[in-house]
Design goal:
The structure is a single chain. The protein is of the alpha+beta class and about 90 residues long. The chain has two helices and five strands; from the N terminus they run H-H-E-E-E-E-E. The protein has a five-stranded antiparallel beta sheet, with no helix packed on it. It is elongated. About 10% of the residues are buried.
Amino acid sequence: MCDTEEELIEAMKQFPRKDIYRMAKKVVTELDHEAKIMFSIGDRVKFKSKRGMYITGTVDKINAKTISLRDCDDGGPGWRIQPGILINLEGA
């Protein structure tokens, strides 16, 4: 078991790059799954756009890899966002 980030990085250097990519993909998949169970259709959520602005919307659909948003305050038709970057406003 690694106690620090530095120890983890050193331990990872033992593995081939393809195994590290495979592990990283599994970690992201698990985090996205955990994040998805935090949301329900109709929840108000926000996320930070690439331009650094927060966009607020309503969860419309929970897809396999993304969450679809509607009624967004940026005036666009909607967004499909990875659940790991969404912030649920229902509990805020």
